[in-house]
Design goal:
mainly beta, four-stranded antiparallel sheet, 397 residues, 29 strands
Length: 397
């Protein structure tokens, strides 16, 4: 590396972190991708087949999970952040991501019901609030393809920077935030900086009966796709009068070429339905299975089928996706709840992202333990109060 290129890289890693997004009512998100279904793409059928759906995000060659050790700088006040933040010169701690400040020694845990942690005077809040700056370096062998950076949960908001450049901003603590970072990356070493404020305008909308934590508390990962990929999909089931089911698969693509999209339904290793369509850029289409003779899902017999989605160009696989799917139907007649034509009573609980040692940060094993506990107490419905859970909670067990 020449002296000139070394100096250029050093200049890239100096950041102007003092953004006003967190206190600007005109900004809820900036450069965040449109919300979509959670799924993990794979590069081959073999790779998919060798992967446990519970931990698939950690086992796909198309996904790099960045969770683990990050550099971390905590400031008690926004005003303490230097005008130019040099990631090479600032003395930082090492912190584990996912985690919460209140469970890693930076603040005491807070539990509040309907009150706030500051005088209630909407829309005003303590703007000179604590800030956590997260830094992660990673290597990139090549920059071909498209790269999406996913944050599954950050409380309550964050400004994102990559390689010295501002990328975007997101609020909504427990919502997934995704960014197209293709244009910000370089071959070799890259650097992510996330500036997390303790409070923001949105804090007034997050006054729930729960522990109040801060930080990057769910996984962070990068997904690399080709120029042709599945961006989103919906699998919608409906009950036919003869007891069979209809399944509509409604995809959204990011494609540059004509491609083939295939949907398959498997019962274990047995293929029970398959359809393909050709898709061109800008074309909207769907696949419909009119009659599927399937076993209905119920709490007593939780039968699941595998929905496999493939995208191919000229016979070559671009990516493959798996989603477990169940078939059921419900209706409410006056005050009676019918599930698969049977009257049932809902025996439910509230579920929070809560671990006594890590706060909001939960592992797959933590979530699975909660689900097992539900079943042991005959729970048949769960309210994910008061926010979307980690998508893994919806697929474990």
């Amino acid at each position: 590396m020449t002296v000139l290129s070394s100096l250029f890289l050093r200049w890239l890693m100096i950041y102007e972190l003092k953004k006003d997004n967190y206190k600007n009512f005109n900004v809820f998100k900036d450069n965040v991708l449109e919300p979509r279904a959670y799924f993990i793409p794979f590069s081959s059928e073999k790779e998919l087949g060798e992967t446990d759906i519970r931990t698939e995000r950690y086992n796909s060659s198309m996904v790099a999970v960045l969770s683990g050790e990050w550099q971390f700088k905590y400031y008690e006040k926004c005003s303490d952040i230097p005008a130019s933040f040099d990631t090479e010169k600032e003395e930082c701690d090492t912190i584990s991501v996912p985690s919460c400040w209140q469970f890693t020694g930076y603040e005491k845990p807070y539990y509040v019901n309907t009150r706030y942690q500051f005088p209630c005077d909407p829309p005003n809040f303590p703007e000179d609030c604590p800030v956590g700056i997260y830094i992660k370096k990673f290597m990139l062998g090549e920059t071909s393809g498209k790269y999406t950076l996913t944050f599954l949960g950050v409380a309550p908001c964050f400004d994102l920077f990559i390689n010295g450049k501002y990328v975007g901003y997101s609020e909504g603590s427990h919502n997934t935030s995704e960014f197209d970072i293709t244009a910000y990356l370089a071959e070799g070493e890259n650097e992510i900086v996330a500036c997390v404020h303790k409070w923001c305008n949105g804090t007034y909308l997050e006054c729930q009966d729960m522990f109040r934590n801060n930080g990057i508390f769910r996984d962070v990962y990068i997904t690399r796709t080709g120029n042709n990929s599945i961006y989103d999909f919906e699998a919608r089931t409906s009950h036919n009068s003869d007891g069979t089911y209809m399944l509509d698969v409604i995809p959204t693509f990011k494609i540059c070429d004509e491609v083939a999209f295939t949907a398959q339904v498997f019962d274990g290793d047995k293929l029970i339905a398959e359809k393909s369509i050709n898709v061109c850029p800008g074309k909207v289409d769907k696949i419909t299975f009119d009659v599927l003779d399937v076993l209905e899902w119920s709490a007593e017999i939780p039968k699941l089928y595998s929905l496999i989605l493939k995208l191919e160009k000229d016979g070559e696989l671009c990516e493959i996706i798996r989603r477990n799917i169940g078939f059921k139907h419900i209706k409410i007649n006056k005050n009676v709840f019918y599930f698969n034509n049977k009257k049932i009573k809902l025996l439910g609980v509230n579920h929070h992202d809560t671990n006594p040692k890590t706060g909001y940060a939960m592992t797959i094993e933590d979530m699975e333990k909660d689900v097992i506990t539900f079943k042991e107490y005959n729970v048949n419905c769960v309210r994910t109060s008061h926010y979307p859970p980690d998508p893994a909670l919806l697929i474990v067990r």
